[in-house]
Amino acid sequence: MPVPSSTAGGPRQFHPHSSRKSNIEYMFGIVGIPVTEIAIAAQAVGIKYVGMRNEQAACYAASAVGYLTGRPGVCLVVSGPGFLHALGGMANAAMNCWPLIVIGGSSDRNQETMGAFQEFPQAVRTSIYGRPGSCYIDIPGDFVNLQVNKRSVKYVECCLPPPISTAEHSAVSKAASIIAHSRQPLLIIGKGAAYSHAENNIRKLVDLCGLPFLPTPMAKGVVPDNHPNCVAAARSTALQHADVIVLLGARLNWILHFGLPPRFRHDVKVIQIDICAEELGNNVRPAAILLGDISAVTKQGLALQKSLPMNYYTVFHHIRELIPKDCILVSEGANTMDIGRTMVPNYYPRQRLDAGTFGTMGVGLGFAIAAAMVAKDRTPEKRVICIEGDSAFGFSGMEVETICRYNLPILIIVVNNNGIYTGLDADAWKEMLKFGDPATCVPPVSLLPNSHYEEIMSAFGGKGYFVKTPEELQNALKASVTDKQTPSLINVMIDPQSERKKQEFPWLTRSNL
Questions:
Q1: For the segment 301-319, what is each residue's pLDDT rounded down to a tens digit?
Q2: How far apart are CA 138 and CA 97, in angstroms?
Q3: Is the pTM of this model over 0.85?
Q4: Whole-Å CA distances, 82 to 7, 38, 88, 109, 124
């Protein structure tokens, strides 16, 4: 006896209901026996059905929806050639790691192959958990129009969003240390980063650390292509010279030349961040592996960055981004002046003063005072910014009193590495003193660690800042640039072993140290 229509239904209705409860919004396909009724039922529950002209294009469209929305699109096909035409889209989704569900019809079922309505929610979960990919659901022809009692059907609730996994803390620390000691690091941003909506955290990482980046084709826009750190225009050069590569949801496949020479350095260190454990170590043995969600792992890196010392290049990146373009720049020091010449550009003539032809140390604050006096009379809106190494600052640091006495709103930035060229951190300094008199055991290039030069400015009524992290540096720069009335000094602590990039020829850098 047939079940009354008020309580009747079948997969043509229940599959669309399951789809809607699983937050499926789009279905693409070509109808025919036995799946036409499924498309009609899908529209009835609010799923948008788009009839295509070829199953291959329909499957490509459904997979793209999965990438764009994070929930699988559905491709509806008939059996035989229809399903075969969809295989290209399924393979494409699998390789791109995009969630996709393909529903196909087949011949009538026999008693041994009875399916369950719960298959669809399971397919949704399988398609989006872990590394996303494609799933296939086969619906026998007689199953589509089967009549059952609606009250006997139990719907499975929508699966929860994919769990967000983070990397091991030790792995994050190791990766951060490798980056901190690199000379030419490069971030390679893959579409996995785009899929995980990691753009905000990755942009913060690029901006805070001043890291250059290269997007793969479908990761373009995670960080804007017009960002000054984008090296896409010099892709080959960037890949060949990077000593550390950070893979953010990117794979070392043919698009990236498998990570092998001659496109990459033979000694390049690879830091791999991926949600799929099976992908880690493909083609190149990583120096550090971080298994987890790209956005979450990047956030871990940002949190850890606050505890790591900066280097010259990070400091100058933030200075360049935050100081006025029309300021008068004064600079002196060894690495500080040399790196500053390339990292901090000038846009107008006669607005840079440094050690000059005679290579004189100690000129900085005198030059800055002169520039401020001239600017006060001729261009009072123009700022004077004096960037000093800690050794160079020591030559004429007491001129800070002169600056405060005449209320000259000069911003002094001391890049402090505890030494001349290089120094020692506080722990190493204490250990060194155990060997005896500092005059006989402390390296001649070392200065007292963590000297608070900013307190000299504070002592005379100006504003002093002691900063150790990119965020603290940003805040101090913004406050100092905004205050156009008060002299200020930012004492920026960096890694004592931070140096400039190795020169390709000796010139004045020749030394046995």
A1: 888 776 678 888 889 989 9
A2: 21
A3: no
A4: 32, 15, 11, 19, 22
